[in-house]
Amino acid sequence: MDLKLLEGKLAELGEPRYRAAQAWRWAARGAEGFDVMSDLPLGLREALTESVPFSTLAVEEEAHAADGTVKVLFHTADGRPVEAVLMVYRDGRRSICLSSQSGCPLTCTFCATGQMRFGRNLTAPEILDQALHFRRRGPVDHAVFMGMGEPMMNLDNVLAACERLPDLGITHRRTAISTIGWIPGIARLAKNPMPIRLALSLHAADPALRSELMPVNDRYPLPDVIGACEAYYARKRRKVFVEYVMLAGVNDSFAQAAQLADILDPRIFKVNLIPYNPTGSQFTGSSPKAIAAFRDELERRGPRATVRLTRGREIDAACGQLAAARMIPAGR
Ligand code: SAH
Asked: Are 101 and 222 found together in one domain?
């Protein structure tokens, strides 16, 4: 919901300012439309239904995986594709994975989003409407900016959306922004008062290999990125999560685990190893055995490490698979 548009419309209708807050309270709790907002006058509800779109996004397709993961493909008013994912866990956690851009201008070689055409930055309402879509289906309690796009390249809109997430049930502490290492964004997040978690897509400790996998490493070299994360920690006292996608024969050797452990202060960083999800790239994923060995070697040398649970792979909803293509129609 575009709250600026709503406020403008309410002013035009000569309504008191508190009406916008009233309407937002309903929307944030999962209301399906203005018509159910029973503390707004009936005529006003009708006028708003006529003039303010309830969402800035239209649902194009929805796919459901057996593990409970739901992937939704939306399009914006100007026809840009956007995907978001709901992940449900056995412990009851309901986490949403949000997109910050339609497509992505960066070209990480293993990521499907990097292979599609970049569209544009999403507006704050377009980011929030992804979350509201899932909120209308049930409670949500965690959010990660790990969908399409590089959130730090669109930080104003990402942070504006984050400010509203607690109203949906997602506290800042349960919100994480993942970045390829966009230093100006990391520095800004460190200064922002919201206690949002930082996640860093690292993928290779060796500079030459990292540049090969992620060309953006030439612009923001890893030592400087690590420095920015350490500064974030100094200010926020919140651990930085390192994401490391496991590519067979590329970045999964013992020596590479040692090299990774060398650059990560265990007091500051925690490693999350990500099994590679197929994206049609030249890579194959490391075997579960290789991943476990890499994790053990890391932990032996210092940093805590876990292996990410893969969700929604059969509907191309897993990490790195969002490309607004090959959707399986909802099976219900
Ligand atoms: N641009 C930001 C936000 C997207 S997060 C970032 O890269 O951090 C998406 C996460 O999925 C990143 O950690 C990314 O490196 C990872 N990823 C990309 N392609 C993947 C793949 N094929 N398999 C597993 N993880 C992948």
From this structure: yes
Residue 304's contacts (CB-CB under 8 Å, 6 or more residues apart) are 266, 270, 271
Domain that holds residue 12: 1-54
**Average pLDDT along the chain, 332 residues, taken 10 residues at a time:** 96 96 98 97 97 97 94 96 95 96 96 91 98 98 98 98 98 98 98 98 98 98 98 98 98 98 98 94 96 98 93 85 61 30
Residues 2 and 71 in one domain: no
Is residue 101 within 8 A of residue 120, CB to CB? The reply is yes
What spacing in Å lies between the alpha carbon of 191 and ligand 1's midpoint?
25
Distance 145 CA to ligand 1 centre (A): 10
Which residues does a 6 A CB cutoff place in the pocket of ligand 1?
110-111, 146, 150-151, 178-180, 201, 243, 245, 274, 276-277, 279, 319-320
CATH of the domain at 144: 3.20.20.70
Residue 325 lies in a domain: no
